[in-house]
Amino acid sequence: MTADGPIFLPQGFKFSSASAGIKTSGKPDLGLILAEPSASAAALFTRNRIVAAPLEVGRAALAKTGGRVRAVLVNSGNANCATGTKGVRACRIVCAALARELKVNASEVFPSSTGIIGVPLPTAKINHKLRSLAGGAEPTVERLRQFSEAILTTDSRPKLDSVPLRSGKASITGIAKGAGMVHPQLATMLVYLLTDIVASPAELTRALRKACEHSFNLISIDGDTSTNDTVLLLASGQSRTKLQAVRGEFERALIELCRSLAEQIVRDGEGVGHVIRLQIEGAKSRAEALTVARTISRSLLVKTAWAGADPNWGRILAAVGRSGVPVDPRRIIISIGDQKVCQGSSACAFDQTRAHAELSNPESRVTVRLGRGKASIEYLTTDLTSDYVKLNAEYST
Amino acid sequence: MTADGPIFLPQGFKFSSASAGIKTSGKPDLGLILAEPSASAAALFTRNRIVAAPLEVGRAALAKTGGRVRAVLVNSGNANCATGTKGVRACRIVCAALARELKVNASEVFPSSTGIIGVPLPTAKINHKLRSLAGGAEPTVERLRQFSEAILTTDSRPKLDSVPLRSGKASITGIAKGAGMVHPQLATMLVYLLTDIVASPAELTRALRKACEHSFNLISIDGDTSTNDTVLLLASGQSRTKLQAVRGEFERALIELCRSLAEQIVRDGEGVGHVIRLQIEGAKSRAEALTVARTISRSLLVKTAWAGADPNWGRILAAVGRSGVPVDPRRIIISIGDQKVCQGSSACAFDQTRAHAELSNPESRVTVRLGRGKASIEYLTTDLTSDYVKLNAEYST
């Protein structure tokens, strides 16, 4: 699943984008999704206690409308986070201006922002572009692709994918962005999922929670949970197919789509050299497996060993040991690719060259068996390279 | 306090070192401390569930002798960790060989190892050197300095310091090593504290716990807790001054010494460009302050910003937000040096150039006020540089 596959256009949505000058590069930094006449909505937000202004405004808007959305307005280049009450006011000003343009209620506009933290949102620059943005919205794949580019920050490429229901009755299309501060607790960065199925906000929320748990909650790039994480699922209802009639199929399709977007995010992680498919098996519970996966995926020593394609299983074992899970070292088995490298708390005889070669691939598999139970997860994470450090150490990014 | 200050020689200890060929560089890799006739001992070990063989053997030895030590045998170049039951046997073989040489019980030998994880301990190489090692032991500062060099791994310099009791009645001298896998939960890497005070193991343990809490537990280099962390405090009793007679002074001196060694470890952290003195104030409890400090000190985005001397307070705020402490963003105040940079969850007007200059110093101060209570801590941590990544990404380190 990649952004290069066919993109389906769920009925009931139009897209638009513009360059408002928020990004100093002059690249597109404003994106709009119109749901006409409107869509049911479900949203999940970051668990970070520091929450950006658009998340506060968006959450309040969804509560007010009972989960109806007419427009999604996204800017990149500015996160409108840690901007105090002025930031909330700025977000409301922009939503109200777009609502006037579209002749809808301000609470029917769902706002998102991504970019630098702590800088006031340039409302005048955004408002200046709203008329042409609204006027230019079209229900085409080309406009959808332009939208997916307008919401990027340090991302090197857009992330999108589509999954049609096998019954052909409806489809789901998703657009995401995110390359750093990716260690989602509930959602990741900005993700927009669009479908033309008929569903209530409650039905959408249930499906969305499940899909996130099996996708965005199983990835980590740098261990930092963003302040702006948002996943929004909109259903236009225009396929006339009811979610309840195809629930199993819809939920599977949504998980598949979210996994595709999550993988695209990890592959495009800041400075990423290698993607690691980390399999945690034999845990007592899913939560326990997740704790081990997150501890390993946050270990600088493990991540730098991966950067050097070094089959240094001792660092992985040490990370498991400090995860807080009461493991018995003698029962742990660690494999790199198809080779066991550690068992019974000591080294196996393994082919170092082959393990090195495995870890030199763009993507490789590392498996940790805890020997405690039957729960398992697959977690997607990355190495830590000098490029990551350079990118994030540059002054005033 | 630095390793360059005067080093006092507590009465009752001799030191020795040798090159046994465990390190491929041929540098000294074997160190010995003799306590004659013997010393009371207290030890703290890593909280990592994966525990190296010498820690198991040393813990059992202390239990068997009721806290008496005749000799401390340390090798660098090999951690003897994740080496299974063979590793424990190898450790016992070496301790028994030294015990025969010294004509003491094997349980009076306290072993330590530091270096690579998962490689069998070369017992023959070590045993071969034990006679000359034991024979060469002398109660001189020169031999003590040689010991402090023989226990180093990726450290660039030895770490030692002395604190005489102001009453002149006894002294405490400490030797430490550690540059990576430093995020102690109870102790850090290898630390040997020697005093000639008269004290029971129980008295020493109490003083040691307190001192570690205010020193090694307040530092982090890379967020990885080692499998070999050991802090050992030995009291020869030869000053004839009883600990109970000078308890306050002894405890203060021990804390001062441990802080000095902890700071030396952080300054010599792998690839460290800048040391950050992180002040957490206004927490509800010390534990809460520690949680916030550890989350900030583990954030790759914060650490890379520090590497670039970037006063990017948004990343610090985001880390506080995901720490799990229920902070109110509006009450948080962040300062860099003496300048407030964030208050009321938005930016203060501050001099960027001055903040950049402050963070360009080898050591700088960052203060986070949570506005929740009266607890505070000072935590010592580091930036994350490309040098760290390069050092740890090299194949087969």
How is this structure best described in words?
- The structure is a homodimer of 397-residue chains.
- Chain A is α+β, with helices and mostly antiparallel strands.
- The radius of gyration of chain A is 22 Å and the shape is globular.
- The relative contact order of chain A is 0.14.
- In chain A, strand 10 and strand 11 form a beta hairpin.
- The longest helix of chain A is centred in the middle third of the chain and has 21 residues, at 247-267.
- The mean pLDDT of chain A is 89.
- Helices cover 34% and strands 25% of the residues of chain A.
- Chain A has helices at 53-65, 84-102, 123-135, 141-150, 201-213, 247-267, 286-298, 300-307, 313-321, 352-360, 386-393; strands spanning 13-18, 30-45, 68-78, 109-116, 159-164, 171-177, 190-195, 230-235, 275-283, 333-336, 339-343, 346-347, 363-369, 375-382.
- In chain A, the strands form two sheets. In chain A, strands 1, 2, 3, 4, 5, 6, 7 and 8 form an eight-stranded mixed beta sheet that branches. A six-stranded mixed beta sheet of chain A has the order 12-11-10-13-9-14.
- The first copy, chain A, contains eleven helices and 14 strands.
- Chain A has two domains: 13-267, 4-Layer Sandwich (L-amino peptidase D-ALA esterase/amidase), CATH 3.60.70; 275-393, ArgJ beta chain, C-terminal domain (Ubiquitin-like (UB roll), Roll), CATH 3.10.20.340.
- Chains A and B meet through helix 2, helix 8, helix 9, strand 12 and helix 11 of A and helix 2, helix 8, helix 9, strand 12 and helix 11 of B.
